[in-house]
Every structure is written in structure tokens, then in C-alpha cells.
Amino acid sequence: MSHKLEQLRDSALREIESAGDEQSLEAARVKYLGRSGTVSAWGEQMKTLGKDEKPTVGKLLNEVRNAVTAAIEERAQKFRAQKESAALSNIDISLPGTPHERGSLHPLTQMLDRSIDIFRRMGFALADGPDIEDEWHCFDALNTPPEHPARNEQDTFFLRDGRLLRTHTSTVQIRAMQAAPPPIRVIAPGAAYRRDELDATHSPQFHQIEGLYVDENVSVADLKGALEFFMRELFGPDTAVQFRPHFFPFTEPSLEVYVKSKALKGGEQWIEVAGSGVVHPAVFEQVNDARGDKAYDPEKWSGYAFGLGMDRLAMILFDIPDIRFFAQNDLRFLRQFA
Ligand code: DAH
Questions:
Q1: What is the pTM of this model?
Q2: What is the pLDDT of residues 37-51, one digit of tens each?
Q3: Contact 175, 184 (CB under 8 A)
Q4: pLDDT at 2
Q5: Is the CB of 144 under 6 A from ligand 1?
Q6: With 80 as the cut, is the pLDDT of residue 150 above it?
Q7: Closest residue by CA, ligand 1 atom 12
Q8: Fewer CB near the terminus (10 Å): N or C of the chain?
């Protein structure tokens, strides 16, 4: 005769098999496996058995518990699957879905990425600074005296607390030199702001890549070599680069950079793309004062700096006629650069 436990198992399995829904299955589970269920009660009873019976009954009890547990899980699984297919039965999975549009990088971002890539190959590291600046970083440290027109309220967005939106990325030159002694070779891409009227070629927010290289014996020749290499990598080997004397308070000599390339639309004319120059010793002195040391001794160190107009570069590279397109978020425009 089979053991009482085996009879218990058989009736449990039968009950589980015939459970028609989740509630009756749960009822069966409580009945057999619940804290005061039948199988659990056998566990209690084990304690009263003699030494000779305990091992066989214990083994059998385990088998029964496992078999009942497995049967309940299997049945539950079946109910879950039924539920799922019922939920799906109203859905035609062969219908086309709602497509997700694939985005692409903004042309200015593409231009920045390409430029950063070229400078990285030349050994420049990335530097960063805030868009909201103080006057010292934006002007004084860059040898720009208080009476300079750039500091005029008409050109600069001032905040009520006296800070301002940086009018150029040259601020990052100062921050980079405050943070580390020479030699230094960094670029700083970012936005700059001026109170310009918005038209096809002017925008109150525009983008620059600032560059700074300080080492021993750095000269205009290094500056010219670096920027010529950059322009030819960007616009092709036939690109001509011209440096014209100019004035910036923070460089001496100062040079404006022009490019001309047959590969570009309007290729026969010179287009201004950057300001540049050899770092003015007064800038080093300002940095030294702020650092409280003589790390940037103008007798020992020299450097070049440049500021590239990224909107302009992107406009000539991609033949974009109006700077306002960059900020209008018009997909008809943006899709052309996907
Ligand atoms: N900061 C200047 C501007 O926004 C551009 C510039 C000129 C940057 C000369 C430089 C530089 O680093 O050396 O017009």
C-alpha cells in the first residue's frame, strides 16, 4: 500500500491540475503548502517519528513538497501565458508601428567636432569656462582697460550683479593659465554673447573656439603654421590663408586670419575667420598676480592665441547663407545635414 504521503501528493496534483483559474490554484497552494497546510503539517509530524522511520519519511516528504511546488508553478505559468495572449488578441501585431524619427547632429556641432578633432591631433587639450563671467576674466586680465568700447553696456550683456555674458571665449585663456603652469596647449569651444542686432551675419549668441599655446620660444611662425594646417585640414589642401595686421589688447602683434578656397562657394574672395596673435606680456603679468607666483614669467615664456568664429566657419563650409538658421530649429534646414 502506498504511503499516506503519496496519497496526499496524488490528490494535491489532481486538485492543481483541475484548478480552473488563479483563485482556485491559490486555494490549493494554501491548502497544501500554506503555513498550516497539509504538507507543512507533515513536517511538524516528522519530529514525533522514531529514528528508523525519519530518513525515509523525510526524503518522501521532500519529494512530495517539490512535486507539489513544481506543479503549482507550472499551472501558474499556464495562467500567465493565457492572460498574455488574451491581452494581445485585440492587437494586430502585423500593423506598422509608430516610427521614431532618427535625429542627427546640428551643423554647428558637426563643425565643432571636426575642428576639435584636428586640434587634438596637434596636441591641444580641451579647456572649459563659464558663459557667465566676471569683468576681470573677460576684460582686465586680457589687458582691456575700463574705457575700452567692448566694455560698454551697449556691446555687452551685463547682469544686475555686475557679472556678464562673456563677449568672447578668450576668458578661458585666463582660467587655463590660472589653473596650470606652462607649458600649456588648450582649445576652448563655446558660446559668446554680444548685443548685436540679429541679421544674416550677426547673432547675439555665437560660437568660438579659443586656442592658447604657451611654451618657450613660441613665435608668430608657430601660430601661422598651426592655423594654416588647421584651415587646410578643414577646407582642403588648396586653401589659402592670409594674416593681416590688426589690433587686440591681449596680443602683440595681433593678426586677423582670412581664408580663400576654390572648394568653397564664393571661393575667390577672402573671408575673415579668426583673430589671433602673440600673447601680450601684460596678460601673463595679470595671471601671475592672480596666481600669486611668477609661473608665467614673460622673460621665459611666450605664447600664441587665437579665436575662431565657428558660425562663420560652418556657414562657409556648408554654404549656409544666414546665421539665423542655426537657432530656428527648422527641420527642413537641419535635415540637410543629417
Ligand atoms: N577674442 C577675440 C574676439 O572675440 C578673438 C581673438 C583675437 C582671440 C585674438 C584670441 C586672439 O585669442 O589672440 O574677437
A1: 0.73
A2: 888 888 888 888 888
A3: no
A4: 65
A5: no
A6: no
A7: 306
A8: N
